[in-house]
């Protein structure tokens, strides 16, 4: 496994629409492993392939430690409710903004075995599904934030 470099805001890669994966090759599974390692090393809860410079529709998420979602060609197939909370991004370091997202989200994706899988998440997981899938279409949360938070509004954990 290898830790990858995270692309930061200002880089055009983050604004591109990613291509679907048509075949799961060793390159793709290695990329998944490297993305998980990179996300963990950066203390993130999600990472999309364009954030490591790869324009493919691949996302990894780990909201609960040890519960990793690897999503290939993911699509949101259902959503409901609404939540508003602070959101950040490993490609936009040191900043947080208030973003409205659905409270419950179901995604359909391919796993590394090539099987079609559906996952439903609420609260933070639902938020991560939306945030990371947006990356695959070149969208960043700062595009849809109600407002950015000032430094004294950010709770240091
Ligand atoms: Zn992000």
What does this structure look like?
It is a single chain. Strands 1-2-3-6-7 form a 5-stranded antiparallel sheet. Strands 4-5-8 form a 3-stranded antiparallel sheet. It is an alpha+beta fold. The chain has helices at 26-41, 123-135, and strands at 46-48, 58-61, 69-80, 83-89, 92-101, 104-110, 116-122, 147-148. The protein binds zinc ion. Zinc ion binds next to α2.
Quick description:
The protein is α+β, with helices and mostly antiparallel strands and about 160 residues long. It is built from 2 helices and 8 strands. The protein is globular and about 45 Å long.
- Strand line-up of the largest beta sheet: 1-2-3-6-7
Heterogens: zinc ion
| DSSP strand count | 8
Helix content: 10-25%
Feature tags:
157 residues; alpha+beta; five-stranded antiparallel β-sheet; three-stranded antiparallel β-sheet; 2 helices; binds zinc ion
